[in-house]
Amino acid sequence: MNDRKPGVAIPERIIPFPASISVEARAALERLVGDDGSPLNAAFVMPEPDDHEGWLRVKAAVDRQYAEAVKGLAGQLRSTVETIRIEAATIHVATPAATFNDDRAYIDFHGGALVFGGGEACRAGARMQADQHGVKCYGVDYRTPPEHPYPAALDDALSAYQYVLERHRPEDIVIGGRSAGGNLAVAVLLRARDAGLPFPAGLVLLSPQLDLTESGDSFETNRLVDLVLPGSLMQSNLLYTAGADLSQPGVSPLFGDLTGFPPTFLQSGTRDLFLSNTVRMHRALRRKGVTAELHVFEAMPHGGFGGAAPEDIELQDEINRFVRLR
């Protein structure tokens, strides 16, 4: 009896960094592998979903790393920021020093596997978006597990969206999310429609984590090839959902009804573990007649090349163009 799993058998090989990318991008990839070519990030092991003490320790350590990483930005950021509470949600409201349009607003959902990335990193991220787009940015510091599993983050996202709608016209709002934040950016629109709320003018999804079932092709083809996110996030997915169905639209919004969605900007890279999330979302939107741009960058891993490569700058220019057209 042949019980071999259907698929393609690939012999062991080294996948080189291509000459088709910038010198800066190649250097960024080279910094993420050991002397033997193994991804440095592959050594990170997530606790089991029911090991809440373990997750609290990992979460504290990762949040310290995030906070340390954003310290260097303090002198570069020009926007001011105020932190407010709306119901259970924490929102960092960043106001740019030079405003492109006082009426416009950008709602930002941070990344971090739906577990990490809050606090100082989220606060700095809101200021970065305000500086970048020249509009007021609302950075949603949503609650995370293990203390606050699903649907706490989505509840916070909806509270934030309602708050912004009370202060800005929907046609003046753009919602954006990177990685896990892309999940919430889409899921909150599904929830908003159910609540009878209008859609914003645009949606920006950067390597979005839209399918927590991890059923896409790139979860296999880009495993270990993506040096930033070399493997499955299923442990954190299960922690986040706390027993909820992984395929329900509130958890995996790729499977939701995308009818009437606003114009959407989608980005990924050929080495991104979430490439399938992005291209499948693009096709799902186009099947509903939604205007959607798909930008896939050569050899780019999850989250880009660190921000300084020409490809990163090109991506930022494309996002700026999209946001200002809304």
UniProtKB/TrEMBL annotation:
Gene3D superfamilies: alpha/beta hydrolase. The keyword Ribonucleoprotein does not apply. InterPro entries: AB_hydrolase_3, AB_hydrolase_fold, GDXG_lipolytic_enzyme. Keywords: Hydrolase. One of its GO terms (molecular function) is triacylglycerol lipase activity. Residues 107-303 form the Alpha/beta hydrolase fold-3 domain. Belongs to the 'GDXG' lipolytic enzyme family. This is Alpha/beta hydrolase. It comes from Sphingomonas lycopersici. The lineage of its organism: Bacteria, Pseudomonadati, Pseudomonadota, Alphaproteobacteria, Sphingomonadales.
